[in-house]
Amino acid sequence: MSYIKSLNINTSKVNPFPFNVSAVKFAKHLDLTSKLNFFVGDNGTGKSTLLEAIAFRLQLPHMDGSDYAKKSFEAAVKLSPYLEFKFSIDRPRGFFFRAEDFGDYLNSVNRADAGLHAQLKSLEGEVPDDIIEEMKENANYQLYHMKKNYGQELNAFSHGEAYLKIIHEKIKKPGIYLLDEPEAALSPAKQLALIYQIVEHLNNNTSQFFIATHSPILMAIPNGNIFEITDQAMEKTALEDTEHYQITKGFLNNPELYLRHLDSDK
Questions:
Q1: Does any domain span residue 53?
Q2: Number of structural domains, the chain?
Q3: Among 20, 41, 95, 160, which has the minimal tally of Cβ within 10 Å of its Cβ?
Q4: Residue 180: inside a domain, yes or no?
C-alpha cells in the first residue's frame, strides 16, 4: 500500500515560474499507487521543483533540521495551495533528501567547527586537549547533533559514503521518502548500494519513495513507476524507452559515434 494514491496540481496558471515548468504544467491526476516513483527528464523540466513542493506540503524534515524558509523553497511555497493529494495512509512521516542540502550541511558543520577551533586555540597548552574537544562539542550544536544521529563525524567518510550513512540512519521506519538527484553524491557502485538499501527497506516496511533522477541505474529498481517529463507531457514510461536510458546505452555501446566530431588536437 502506498501513502499517496494520486497527485494533482490544480491550476490553470502557466506563468510565471514555477507554473511554466513542465513538471508543474503536466502534473495532472498522477497515479502514484506504486511504492516507488521516479521523476525523470532533462534539466529545467521541474523534477526538483515538484519534489520540493511535495516535501513542503507534507512538511517532511530535511537534512539540517531547519524549516522551509530558505529562498530555494520559494517555488514550493507558491505551488503548495494548488497541490491536491489522495492518501491511502494519512499523517505521513518521512524525510526529504536534497544533494545540495547535504553539501551545505557538511560545509556549515565544517565552518562552525573551524570557527570554534580558532576561538579555543588560545587555550591550547593550558587546557587538556580532551577538554577543549568537549568544549567544542558542547558549543557546536550542529557537530553535536551530527554525532548524536550518525555516531561519528561524517568527515571520516568519503562524500558518497557519508550520504549513504545518513540515508541508512534516516530510512528506518515506514514513511514517505523523497530523494532529489541522489546520484549527484554517489558513484555507480554506491548507487547500487542505495538500490539495495531501498529494496531491503521496501521488503520490510510500508513506505513510499519519490526519486528525481538522471540515473538509469536507479531507474532500473524493479517495480518502479517512471514518469518522464518533456516539454509536451509527463507520462509513465518504460525504462528502455526513456531518453536517459537510450542515450546512456547508445554512448556506452558506441562512444566513437558520439565523439567523432571532437578534434583531440585542439
A1: yes
A2: 1
A3: 20
A4: yes
Put simply, whether the predicted model's pTM sits higher than 0.85 gets the answer: no
First to last CA, the chain: 56
List the grid coordinates of 220.
532500473
45 occurs within a structural domain = yes
Q: Say if 143 falls within a structural domain.
A: no
Q: For position 16, which CATH number holds?
A: 3.40.50.300
Domain ranges, residue 70: 4-100+173-259
